[in-house]
Structure to design on (476 residues):
């Protein structure tokens, strides 16, 4: 059902809400949430922001000039939208540049392969040519005898990613990407390749970061497009000895990244902070529209919708466009999320809740609240306000929130999740196909409306999610 049809009854629902106060939400706050929600559906700030960001700056690799320039522009954009206390906070970063890459099967019947170097993977320092040894899992690679891959290329093909609405099929493949190069190096391999972590069958590999071990990524790693992964696996199944030639000029360099921060100051309790997070950096193959230009657009537009409602909320709404979410580092400092937590110091105790939008731009279908809040009066009020948008309560508490707000969650800040439909997200994620045309404007607006309504309910109340938390869930 289209949003316009579902919202025909919205005004009647809003009137009923006025007679149903919830803990820490008076009738006026609840009714205004519905008004803000409906107004946000017709606002065009989100699409304007992501259009300008991706068109003007394109890809924004962590620590690159494009990311830095985009941050300066985003700060100006926030100021123009009426945000206050806008600032850019820098932190040091090891950047990574892809350079040029190639791969091919060599021998009697040579074939070109389509690959993408894994983020922060070292270059090949010329050509690497070696026999490929296939494994069907990371566990199988780890179980290989020591030295058994000397002079060879380790290849993990764990099969196609399982397509799931919540994206849960991604985790098993992302673990291969992050841990595969180190596992291959431990067995003596000269390089690592894997079936790229995606749910599509396009000849378009998915990049993504790998992991540092003792301050280095131990050997070159590559993601192989799904059709090419099928080819290599079939040849090996036929009993062929497959030799592959790899080349990469990737390099690392010292640079800086930054968080961009802007606020809608609270009316009566401005020291109480609600963080709306997303990340500004992207991978270099596409233009970072769904990952994560859309997230910044959604959170920024939601805060702007609240500002435009004519009444500032009691608490401060802080929008943070985090830097360098996508990449690993030699020392795990949490990148933008860690830098933010270190910067606020003891003020973390005044952070009421945090939420992150980093799963594309398709519709929100479920609300996840912190432990203990699922059956609260607040949850019931939020459910009634979000139901006209097709957003239902998740039965599971939200514990992590996302990479950028993960450090806040680890420091005890409650987190919420407005869970998006990720059915097609991993067709596009970390590929050259992550571009503006993949965003559905109507679904983008539904996201903004859901965020604006929920955040208003939190921000213009004195609800205490920490106090709701069961004793057993006292630490994230």
């Amino acid at each position: 059902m289209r949003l316009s049809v579902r919202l025909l009854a919205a005004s009647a629902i809003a009137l009923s809400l006025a007679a149903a106060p919830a803990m820490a939400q008076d009738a006026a706050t609840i009714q205004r949430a519905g008004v803000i929600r409906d107004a946000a559906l017709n606002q065009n700030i989100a699409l304007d922001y992501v259009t300008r960001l991706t068109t003007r700056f394109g890809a924004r690799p962590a620590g690159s000039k494009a990311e830095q320039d985009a941050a300066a522009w985003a700060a100006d954009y926030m100021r123009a939208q009426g945000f206050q206390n806008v600032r850019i906070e820098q932190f040091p970063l090891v950047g990574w540049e892809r350079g040029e890459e190639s791969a091919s099967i060599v021998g009697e019947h040579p074939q070109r392969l389509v690959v993408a170097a894994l983020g922060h993977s070292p270059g090949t320092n010329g050509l690497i040519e070696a026999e490929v040894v296939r494994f069907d899992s990371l566990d199988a690679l780890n179980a290989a005898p020591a030295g058994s891959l000397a002079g060879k290329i380790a290849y993990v093909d764990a099969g196609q990613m399982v397509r799931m609405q919540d994206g849960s099929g991604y985790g098993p493949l992302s673990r291969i990407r992050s841990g595969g190069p180190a596992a291959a190096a431990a067995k003596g391999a000269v390089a690592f390749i894997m079936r790229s972590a995606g749910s599509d069958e396009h000849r378009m590999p998915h990049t993504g970061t790998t992991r540092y071990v003792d301050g280095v990524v131990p050997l070159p790693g590559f993601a192989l497009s799904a059709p090419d992964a099928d080819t290599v696996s079939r040849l090996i199944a036929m009993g062929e000895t497959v030799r592959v030639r790899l080349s990469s000029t990737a390099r690392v360099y010292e640079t800086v990244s930054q968080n961009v921060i802007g606020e809608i100051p609270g009316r009566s309790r401005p020291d109480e902070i609600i963080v709306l997070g997303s990340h500004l950096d992207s991978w270099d193959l596409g233009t970072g529209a769904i990952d994560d230009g859309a997230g910044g657009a959604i959170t920024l537009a939601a805060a702007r919708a609240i500002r435009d409602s004519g009444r500032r909320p009691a608490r401060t709404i802080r929008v943070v466009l985090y830097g360098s979410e996508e990449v690993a580092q030699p020392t795990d400092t949490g990148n933008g999320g860690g830098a933010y937590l270190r910067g606020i110091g003891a003020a973390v105790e005044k952070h009421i809740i945090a939420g992150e939008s980093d799963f594309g731009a398709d519709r929100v279908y479920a609300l996840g609240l912190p432990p203990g809040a699922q059956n609260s009066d607040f949850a019931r009020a939020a459910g009634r306000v979000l139901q006209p948008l097709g957003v239902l309560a998740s039965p599971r508490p939200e514990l992590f929130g996302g990479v950028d707000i993960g450090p806040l969650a680890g420091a005890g800040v409650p987190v919420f999740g407005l869970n998006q439909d990720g059915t097609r997200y991993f067709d596009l994620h970390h590929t050259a196909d992550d571009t503006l045309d993949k965003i559905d404007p109507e679904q983008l607006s539904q996201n903004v409306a859901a965020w604006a309504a929920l955040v208003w309910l939190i921000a213009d109340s004195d609800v205490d999610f920490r106090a709701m938390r069961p004793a057993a869930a006292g630490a994230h």
Q: What stands out?
A: Confidence is low (pLDDT under 50) at residues 1-23.
